[in-house]
Design goal:
Elements: E1 3-5, E2 11-13, E3 26-27, E4 41-45, E5 55-58, E6 90-93, E7 122-124, E8 130-132, E9 135-137, H1 139-147, E10 156-159, E11 162-165, H2 166-169, E12 170-172, E13 184-196, E14 202-206, E15 214-217, H3 219-224, E16 237-247, E17 250-255, E18 261-263
Parallel strand pairs: 6-9, 6-10, 12-13, 15-17
Antiparallel strand pairs: 1-2, 3-4, 4-5, 7-8, 10-11, 13-14, 13-16, 14-15, 16-17, 16-18
């Protein structure tokens, strides 16, 4: 991993730690198959190496979308040649929450004959060439990549059964947009204001929005996120996927449950061993 989460829920790059004598407590920035944050304890590897790429490592939870993101023995490292494609060009977005899968012997991995989708490796094509295998990506990870300007306009997203370009579906709240009512929409931006709704959800007003577009998060999604205090949401970045609609208060996107994520993320209280 090139980044990790610190105690404030913010991303820290591995290069930002170079030269430090001691490292702060850090956790994995990925998300599991059930939509929960992985938050496995992370540590630094190969920081002083002259032949390997420095990175963060962690004992990830089942299905973490950062579990095999980068090999520390990638091509060019001493003693081994590993052919890998650049990460990030093809993402298979996690549209719904699913339970972790396990192999025939109970280990948390795909079936023996299933190559899996957790690492962006090369797959053979009929013409004898090679293409990038889509990597499973959570919307929380996509939000982090957007904040870090790591998403290109020609990147491809696999949304259910469709493959679309990033430029056609991802919109920042401050971008000028045509009227796309009824269209699939990935909306992200900085939360300016949060108001509770009559159905115990929350409607987020995003900063810089030219047409007042908001993001509606229902009560079910808020429970999954730990029912964060509404007052603590302002100032965070948020992402959500859904269909753009209009109401008397203006356009809004009712985000699907598994697609809502915040950055800095909302940290749930850590369970202490022995707690019920």
């Amino acid at each position: 991993m090139d980044s990790a989460i610190n105690a404030d829920g913010r991303r820290v790059s591995v290069e930002a730690l170079r030269g430090l004598i001691t490292y702060p407590d850090l956790w994995c920035p990925g998300y599991l198959l059930d939509g929960e944050a992985c938050e496995a304890k992370a540590w630094v590897t190969a920081m002083s190496s002259t032949v390997k790429h420095p990175a963060f490592a962690a004992h990830h939870g089942p299905g973490c979308d950062h579990g095999s993101e980068r090999s520390t023995d990638r091509e060019g490292d001493a003693g081994r040649q590993v052919r890998q494609v650049p990460l990030g060009r093809v993402r298979k977005m996690r549209m719904t929450l699913s339970a972790p899968s396990s192999g025939p012997n109970g280990r948390r991995r795909p079936h023996d004959k299933d190559p899996g989708t957790r690492t962006a490796r090369l797959r053979a094509e009929g013409g004898g060439g090679a293409a990038e295998a889509p990597r499973s990506t959570s919307f929380g990870t996509l939000l982090g990549d957007l904040r870090g300007s790591e998403v290109r306009l020609d990147d491809e997203l696999e949304l259910g059964s469709r493959i679309v370009t990033a430029a056609s579906v991802i919109h920042h709240a401050g971008d000028p947009k045509p009227d796309k009512r009824g269209s699939d929409y990935i909306l992200w931006g900085t939360i300016q204001r949060a108001n509770t709704t009559e159905f115990e959800g929350v409607r987020l007003t995003l900063a810089g929005s030219r047409d007042g577009v908001g993001l509606l998060i229902d009560a079910k999604t808020l429970r999954r996120l730990g029912n964060p205090p509404v007052a603590e949401l302002a100032g965070r970045d948020v992402i959500g996927f859904g269909t753009l609609k209009r109401s008397a208060k203006g356009p809004y996107l009712h985000a699907q449950d598994a697609t809502v994520a915040f950055e800095p993320r909302i940290r749930k209280p850590r369970r202490v061993p022995g707690d019920l």
